[in-house]
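Protocol step 4 of 5: obtain the predicted structure for the target chain.
Materials: sequence only (see below). No template structures provided, no constraints applied. The aim of this step is simply to have a reference model before the mutagenesis design in step 5. Sequence pasted as it appears in the construct record:
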Amino acid sequence: MKYIIGTRGSKLAMVQTNYVRQRLEEAYPEDSFEIKVISTKGDRIQDRPLEAIGDKGLFVREIEEQILSGEVHIGVHSMKDMPAQPEKGLVFTKSWVREDPRDVLILREKKNIMELAPGAIIGTGSKRRKFQLLNMRPDLQVVDIRGNVDTRIRKMHEQKLDGIVLAAAGLKRLGMEEVISQYLEKEEMISAPAQGVLALEVREDNKDLIAKLDALYDEDTYECAKVERQFLDQIGGDCHVPVGAICTKNKEGFELHAMFGNEEGTNIAYAHVQGENPEEVAKEAVQTISEQMIGTVYLVGGGPGDPGLITVKGMELIRKADCIVYDRLSSPELLDDAKPNCHFIYVGKADRHHTMKQEDINLLLVKMAKRYKTVVRLKGGDVFVFGRGGEEGKVLKENGVPFVVVPGISSALAGLAYAGIPITHRGIATGFHVVTAHNRRDELADIDFEAMARSQDTNVFLMGLSKLHDITVNLLNVGMPKDTKAAVIASATTPQQKTCVGTLETIEEMVKEAGLKSPALIVVGDVINMRETLNFFETQPLFGKTYLVPKIGEKSSRLSWLVKENGATFKEVTVGKMAMVPMVFTKEELSKVDWMIFTSRNGVDSFFENLFASNLDVRALGNTKIATIGTATNQALNKYGLSADLIPTEFNSTALVKTMKDILNKEDVVWYLKVNNAEDKMKKGLEEVCDFHAVPVYENVTVPLEENIDVLAYDHILFTCGSSARRVLSCCSKEIIEQLNEKCACVSIGPECTKVLNQLGIHNLIQSKASTYESMVRSLMD
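Step 4 output (structure tokens):
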């Protein structure tokens, strides 16, 4: 029988695979064995850390695909690089004898880690190694390094690193033991689970081949590697977190040293367990570490859609969360308030299309609690009002994970209110029924329609749009009058909210004509008659409008929030980012500056960042007066304990130049803190009347558009600077520019922005009366 052995093409991989082929040829001379080199994604991407590009499957997926297809019979890998469970349809055969499992230091000049100078630089691509190194020597600098053994050693010399950490097994297999400076014992550094063990992967239905490979196994290696990988599987380890395990056999049975930590390395836990039963040893190590690592899961109701309707406590937890598990019905804007390094996991469900089943979500929360101190499970509406929060809490309790429930505002209350429908009203409805419209089999739920028909209460059906026909028919069948008021509210409390009002007889057809989609609420009852009086939300001045908001930087624009507060929908597109231009200031030169001019908060922030980096503070500006354009720029100054001496009544550069000409003289030194590469209108206006200096302190760097933007799909495009206009419209055809003019789709913040729009062919536009976001919004209302 001819067998094909698949492997990566690295030097180490080929040495390991040739070893496997040699042993197989010696054991089974009647068979032939051929090696096939397969390139993997992990081999092709060498410029980024492993956790930044995916999981451990990056190094094996292409090989596994060929095993499953039958092109390859055996895959040879390093077991430490393998996920805890093999791909479906594949198995790992019993482990052969293990090579040295320890990690080692290769040092450029010194002999061991304790001889290294303070602040020495060590290279490794492993978080496990990094955090354990820092545990031994907190003063070390640990930098990322990728590549095969030869590449890493070469980089160590080229980049003048003091040393690198590698696996002893690979170096010994390559015959490179002489480069090892120091072996790190398990008391110093716990190895990766199954380090030094070869993984032989085959199809699970290839029984004859499995038997041949298993016959060559080493019992001690097989049993110890099994303990280590059971620990890996149960603790939930992957390439994003540091995890280590090394097991040995002795007279007392199995001895396991294990470690586990979070991504940042701020919480590392260790376990040392001994016992006769290998499965119990792994289980006890997981339990010991979990008790040290366990965080708290907060089941937070995110409200019905409007991000402003989350509770104060809920928002506080979002801001401090290390991990947020969120679903489709929670407002995505809430995530903007999370920490920059927060781990987001989407588990949304919609109309039987599940990103993750509820049972898996429950276990995911347990897993994340072992990794993070603060885990927020952000759910739409309220945690317990058809939110399945009880199921999540039950599983957390069973697994010893502490949890806290933070109730949220249910759409059953807020959704009706935003449609102008009070759920109760004196003299009309003194109570209400809130039910889910379908059961777990997606059939119509067992609802007491007769009780609804007998009472005057308001009836609210959640998650029931697909059951609207069944609901109306059942209510009519039990005697509810056909002219009873009924309403359907889609996307409640969001700018996309749409409401249809009719009767039990007409509502189904009205919803079809309006094209309403889930999520939607169904309301039946006389309180709907109050909508004409109480409908505050859908009567907002910009309700139903959609705006494109080009923005600079990652943060959401305040302009977007202003249009949203007035009922509009917005789409933000990032067209640039602000980058500080590094500068060094001296106290002597600043003391000679009579006036500083700031025209944006970016100029303010960049100047002060450079000021502080120069080991100076606001005292260096004691002799300097400050002029700004606009209140927003002055507010940026306020953060540093300063306030503008001059703000023109009109918020534009022309007005500022005109005002300053009247108060400056030739000897006055004026600094204009500006963006780099911008048209210098200020200089043209002031250089003749003072000692004028343009000082670029930041630059507006272009960011490529992430997607093709259909600019005609929006009611208006809101431009707050000329650079944004250029970046959005410069790629538009002449025909699109003509259509934008026809519909007067462009809104400019002021004269300078308008000038750029005119250059781009936009002449029919709306210009804000003042160069402020508030004025732009008022222009839209007018």
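Step 4 remarks: The first strand starts at residue 2 and ends at 7. Residues 121 and 141 are 5 Å apart (CA to CA).
Proceed to step 5.
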